[in-house]
Fold these 4 entries.
Entry 1:
Amino acid sequence: MAHKYPNVLIHLVFSTKERKGLIADELLPRLWKYFAGIGRNHGIPVLAAGGISNHSHLLIALPSDMTPAKAVQVLKANSSRWIREHGIAFAWQEGYGAFSVSSSNKAAVVDYIEHQTEHHRRRSYDVEFEAMIRKSGMRFDAEDAFG
């Protein structure tokens, strides 16, 4: 078969350095659009972007020739540069979460990502991230996750 038909959906989650609320609320909608632009420029379709001042969620379609780590590196490096251009002393935390998403669950994940503000009125990032790791069946270690 000569053609490639990848459908690898990945829900990426990463926080600001020390999970500090560094991203101003008025900048967030522009950041989500900027992530989409980064994705277009690097062949990483960004299907949804959202989050709050201390972390971001992205749903991407992982290209067949790219690892999740490379996609995260491209998205974080370019977005942090853009945020710093807005006068913010900014850095992303070193790690990330990458969770596979089935096509049948895509709409639910997009909705979840797009409604992060409402979601975080009830639950902190730390609690949310731990729940995502545990739900995916991975071992959770707070020291490793949050250092």
Entry 2:
Amino acid sequence: MTRVVAFIPDLLFGSNVLGALRAAGHDPVLVSDSDGLGRELPGAQVLIIDLTADPMARIEQVSRIPHEGVKTLGFYSHVEADVRAQAEQAGLDLVIPRSRMAREGAALVSRLLET
């Protein structure tokens, strides 16, 4: 079972993501702030990051917490295409629009682990 930390402050969307991850056989946990992220990240194989609100602050929060060996998947609002470039430049492994996260999130986590 893959340990997945989902840093998604939007609890409704986060719950939907967790449900899809559980159905795919992953072991997800939802966090909504930096304290939760720091507490839950050790032992995780994948970190999902919501970049829809204040993306640079989120990227900075993640960069301050050690996460070597953890695959990162960020999602952003499709109307903010520049966020994708910023997140990729910051080193996130995969950056996708929020709509794709809703449709394919669990499958993308599985594929990310294969790389």
Entry 3:
Amino acid sequence: MRRSSAIRATAWGLVGAGAAAPLLRKHTSAPPIIAQTVAFAAPLGLCVATRRSRTRDVAACALQMWAYVAAYKSPHDEPLAQERRTHFDYPIVADRALGLGRLPTVRLQRALARSGPDGAEWSTVDRVLVWTHWMWFMVPHSALAYILVRDPRRFPRAAVMTYAVFDLGASCYWLAPTAPPWYPRLGAPAGTTAVPEVRRLMVEYGELFWQDGWGPLYSVLGGNPLAAMPSLHFATSLMAALLLSEVGPLAGALGFAYALTLGFALVYLGEHYAVDLLAGAALTLLVRRLGPHAAGALRRVGGAIAALEAVAHEAI
């Protein structure tokens, strides 16, 4: 009994420390990797501290995303240091090759975006694409929720693969921060490859639609403007589509329709280069390809956690 209590107390301590670490990361002298390690330990602690249930599954996913958000934002805690390490040129070179001499974003904005005497003119297509972009914050998690309800046996694998894409993508933002299309004209250092002006249509429309509420809303949802390569918007949406297609053809068709629409929106709105999307797709396919090879190791880790959970709750 004493051993069980000690294990549960330690596990709850990991949950508390992991939940607090992202909030305290700017107020400690510890290296950022320490705070991130503690944050990512929180879901594991929860899986020992409480018995397996649907509620615990959802809470563990929430703690994982809380750790991911910190990993996404942390590189921008020191903006000047991050900008000195930022890559500007290679996505421009790659996209000019993909666009046969002109950036796909520039081609799309010149063909579809409209401005009149009073400023931007917003078509129905513009609005649909902006809202498609905003909906992304719910899509990967809604897909997992659907899988949890529709086919619970598939949920653990689906969650692991989805959050592997999130976490591996975030590591790229630490190692190689890369500017999106709209950023070079604002922050590029001298000598950066010249790029025509790219409008950030999502922000322009957001300021119009949300008015005074846009600033606070964007400050919550944003946080790192130099986290463009790979595009996790596209990578996680593609993963959601692939996982939904395993559950049923209609769910898969809806998932792919959303992912393709989002991909077009990200390039047209100026949020991502086309090469960012290709890198995001490659990341998703890599996770899918390597998943079976990692299954054995993941089962062993899961077995160890389950064994600790059993000991932690014996005789309760």
Entry 4:
Amino acid sequence: MTFRVGVVALVATLFASTGVRAGSISISISPVVELRDGVLAAKVDIKNSGDEAAHSVAPVLSFRGKELRGAAREELGPNQSMTAELSLPASDLTPGRWPYRVAVDYTDANQYPFQALHVAWVTLGNPPPAKLSVAEVKAEPLARSGSLRVRLKNLAAAARQTSVRVVVPEGVEVTQPEQSLALPAWEEAAVSAPLINRTALAGSRYPVFIAAEYDDDGVHQAVIGQGMLEITNVRSFFQSERQLLWIAAAVLVLAWLGFLSWQFGSGRLRRATPPRG
């Protein structure tokens, strides 16, 4: 029996300076994935819709701790596409929804490495809908370090123990990629995952994904959430705390004016008059 899922997603955009004008590489991934006879087979269409060529473009399929890298294409020009077929062993699966990852490694004209990313799930059998939803995936603009907030909601009357995995592109590190989250019946709960910028360049925008999984009566369930991560320049203390500094300055001015008003009101400050002759 064959089960498949096909998803199209715009997964990464890089803005880079190219001489006197700004150029971009924008990689989209369109996978069609099948579970067939103990094998996860993926047909992946990759397109560059930017206006600069991507180089050394290679797809990577990951599933349950296994990974396979496809052959690299030397150059993928603007509005050009390529197709790759990849497969990994997928035996001993219980019915349900199982997450997989497709990444595309590439470089710009300066051979600086980047990675586009796509995460989704493939279905085995006929499982009921997952009783879990991703309420929020939010990341602050990242310069050196930051965090990703994930909020989940339990849609069932029973408490649930959920595994939450954060997936980010290479160049950004998640120091706690997988965490366990207890969800009371009908309630929401949140986790925070620390992020560190290792090699991502300012001006890049990447999607970040979370895969929340749990088991229920022999059925494996998974839900996928997606957010956007913006890479920014490192700012100085005065730049990052500009608003706070303006507020502090305003408070000091108001305090000084209040002090002067009190001094005049109490008669402590009076203009000196010359003595009478």
